[in-house]
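Module 6 notes. Inverse folding takes a fixed backbone as the condition and produces residue identities as the prediction. Think of it as a translation problem where the source language is geometry and the target language is the twenty amino acids. Below is one complete input and output pair. Work through it position by position during the lab.
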């Protein structure tokens, strides 16, 4: 079965993770076409904003808000996100 990129993107955008992310509000520009929604997630800006709502402790790292399809800026934003997620879970005591 041949699956197109647009079909894979549609499946991803219907996943539970994206459904959960949508509960935080409209992505970036509010434009709801699939490619824009995907890019709003891939650039890491919106995901970092969600992480800031979950853990509002200030960090010294600022995300790049104008990625403009720059892969290096996108990677930097996602690296900051992963680092903040690790910090959040490592700083929380385990409840048993």
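Target side of the pair, the amino acids:
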């Amino acid at each position: 079965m041949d699956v197109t990129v647009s079909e894979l993107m549609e499946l991803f955008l219907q996943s539970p993770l994206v459904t959960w992310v949508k509960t935080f509000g409209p992505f970036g520009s509010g434009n709801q076409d699939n490619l824009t929604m995907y890019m709003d997630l891939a650039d890491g800006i919106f995901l970092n904003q969600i992480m800031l709502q979950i853990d509002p402790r200030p960090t010294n790292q600022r995300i790049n808000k104008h990625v403009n399809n720059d892969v290096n800026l996108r990677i930097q934003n996602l690296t900051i996100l992963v680092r903040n997620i690790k910090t959040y879970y490592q700083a929380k005591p385990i409840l048993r």
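Reference fact for the lab report: The mean pLDDT is 85.
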